[in-house]
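Researcher: Re-running this chain for the archive, since the previous output was lost when a drive failed. Same request as before.
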Amino acid sequence: MIALAPFYPIVDSADWVRRIASVGAKLIQLRIKERTFDEVRGEVRDALATCARYGAQLVINDHWEAALAEGGDFIHLGQTDLDGVDLKAIRSKAVRLGVSTHDHTELERALSVEPDYVALGPIYPTTLKVMPWAPQGLDRIGEWKRLIGQRPLVAIGGITLERATLCLAAGADCVSVVSDVVRHSDPIVRARAWIEATRAAA
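Model: Regenerated structure tokens:
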């Protein structure tokens, strides 16, 4: 099984990837919404070049076709994304795959596609988007880790720097974050603090 860096920020542009990778982030998800296919390809291409420069791993959310076209080697899919994805095409190129889960039914479906990691959320209440699921809490992290075995577990949703170490102690292999970094008053200083804290706790 693969090993994941404990700090896993999610950003929405190649520029953010550059900013976060330049301060030492080693695992970054690019999640782009409401852009054309060509625009997404351009962002993916630039982000992959940045990650190659800084020795970071880029994970491309949802846009698996753009990822494959640009030589991306790690894709993240939500449950709805699984409906139309060509898993055979992804696996034929040895591309790694992460899948989101929120309940036991989704976990069963995720495990059926042999993911390289499983994400669980929301761990805490989140203001980023309306979620139909109640916060999972720390106990669910331990349960999920037991169920998925050796696969890495990603905790996501409402996680602040102060909560990150609790998630790692509960069994998560890494913690994914959006708002606590990109919406912080000084996101680069905050990213450095995340890197230091999660490396110490992992």
